[in-house]
Amino acid sequence: MMIKETSLRRDPDLRGELAFLARGCDFVLPSRFKKRLKSFQQTQIQNKPEKKPGTPLPPTATFPTSPRPLSPVPHVNNVVNAPLSVNIPQFYFPEGLPDACSNYEQTLSKIETAFMDIEDQKADIYEMGKIAKLCGCPLYWKAPMFRAAGGERTGLVSAQSFIAMWRKLLNDHHDDASKFICLLAKPSCNSLEQEDFIPLLQDVVDTHPGLTFLKDAPEFHSRYITTVIQRIFYTVNRSWSGKITSTEIRKSNFLQTLALLEEEEDINQITDYFSYEHFYVIYCKFWELDSDHDLYISQADLSRYNEQASSNRIIERIFSGAVTRGKTVQKEGRMSYADFVWFLISEEDKRNPTSIEYWFRCMDVDGDGVLSMYELEYFYEEQCERMEAMGIEPLPFHDLLCQMLDLVKPATDGKITLRDLKRCRMAHIFYDTFFNLEKYLDHEQRDPFAVQKDVENEGPEPSDWDRFAAEEYETLVAEESAQAQFQEGSFEDYETEEPVSPSEIGNKGNKSKIVTSSLSEKCGKLQSVDEE
């Protein structure tokens, strides 16, 4: 602390001691000087208010005693807190955006009136179709509504139980996707698993006019249902979680396609999910590979598909569990019919987003999320060996790699990601190059300008899968027709007759009978294909 000169003059003893110190006198003890100096400083602090009685106190001294301080700090706080009090409207509605204009009570009143016209005011699953239309829902929501209202237990639904169920659903769920999940899902679940679709699809099989011929072939109900379920999850379940959420339902066309079933009598015209022709193609392909007909195919069986077009290394990756669910494939080395549905669609339509993900998982051997040059070379090695066995000189890997990098144009040099393959729109050529020799050679022989034209064409063209299924169905039906007429002794007449058009297949004509009879013969003693 600084000591003023005037203060030293008032204490001569202290001045003397300081003078002795300045002269370097040894007899002045430092401890004595420090004691005197500390005493002097305390005296100055105590006497300071008395020396200047007229000096006003600092503002900080009066701050605690002021009842309403004029400090600008509270004012600044008010300005900062003002935006926090603004009411931000809700912008996330997981159960759909509520409609304030909807008159739910009027709808419930109409439902109650409709039940009054039903005997005993109890509706079965067929009368539930009228109730579904009154609720503003598609016809084939009737089975989920029937089960949600407790009809599965008694076979009938009363007006009270249905209205109570529907009122609760309207209060908690506000769009079609949310309502659909609530009706089909298990209690306290907000997502759909594969078995949740079975009642809905069984009702479609039982009541749709395009599937009436299946009434004589009940053994195929479960197989058709399994096929439809796998196609639904293949297209809708973009997260690969095995559980469909309301968000995934909203982003898909499933509910719109389900509503079309009510308007379209020929179910084969609805190629998404429900086409019987597509089911027939998939099941026949599986039957050809399932040599022992136990509804499972081995790795050797799958390698025979399309005359061993796919490489052994990619088939090994499929059976490694990279793209299959359950422990049957990994432990027992067997693929179920449900897994085969995913394989076939992915193999025949490599432009599909799910197919791109399917084959990316297979080629990503180390699971790091990128395809390295080592992994590309690993799969191309087998392609080279097969081409050399056929007498074809393969392109050196370095040259091929330059072509593929130019094709994909990856964001990071030396690493191809899933995003790169989806963006380039040439994933089908990329994949066939590394593990499908037949299609790779087809691509090599095509005009590169035609390939570019296909990529740039964004019109509503049928998908690769739709084209494949239509062609294969024509071939299969022609073979079955020839076989049937040969067995009847009219093979010579068949050569001059024109086959029936494919539009007649499904709910009428000769082909549906041929198809169902052929499948019945193939089926024999097979068990249900439903997943365990």
From TrEMBL:
UniProt feature, compositional bias: Pro residues: 55-68
Keywords: Calcium, Metal-binding
Gene Ontology cellular component list: protein phosphatase type 2A complex
GO MF annotations in UniProt: calcium ion binding; protein phosphatase regulator activity
InterPro entries, sorted: EF-hand-dom_pair, EF-hand_13, EF_Hand_1_Ca_BS, EF_hand_dom, P2R3A_B_D_EF-hand
Pfam families for the chain: EF-hand_13, EF-hand_7, P2R3B_EF-hand
Domain (EF-hand) ranges: 351-386
Location of the region described as Disordered in the Swiss-Prot/TrEMBL record: 41-68, 481-513
PROSITE patterns membership: EF_HAND_1, EF_HAND_2
Function according to Swiss-Prot or TrEMBL: The B regulatory subunit might modulate substrate selectivity and catalytic activity, and might also direct the localization of the catalytic enzyme to a particular subcellular compartment.
Protein name according to UniProt: Serine/threonine-protein phosphatase 2A regulatory subunit B'' subunit alpha isoform X2
Gene this chain is encoded by: PPP2R3A
